[in-house]
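name: query_chain
kind: protein
chains: 1
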Amino acid sequence: MSGLLLDTHVWLWSLLEPDRIIPDVAATLESEDAELWLSPISLWETLVLAEKGRLDLGPSSREWVENALETVPLHEAPVTAEVALATAGIELPHRDPADRFLLATAKVFDLTLVTADRRLLDQTAVPVLANR
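structure:
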């Protein structure tokens, strides 16, 4: 397993609450052959959570995110036209557009989604590494 797209919570937990990452997933993320990817959608979700007061990132959430990106280098999974078009084929029981973009990103870039979100674990569009 090489290309791993971290969902927002897994990325945040890996930085803020590493004990929430189960041992098998932590070992996979830390392996030498793992390519860790992050979508700008996750950065956006992080900033929104901070704006709503659901996540405390200190006085500047933007600065926190910038520092986090420097601390743990990740490949950026860009939001491209192909990704946007792929969201049309994603079927989920809920209407969260961020989840649709993450799944479409994993599909377009042939990545495994790393998530603890039960709503994403049951989908069949992309392979999933479950943090459960």
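note: Residues 40-51 form the longest helix (12 residues).
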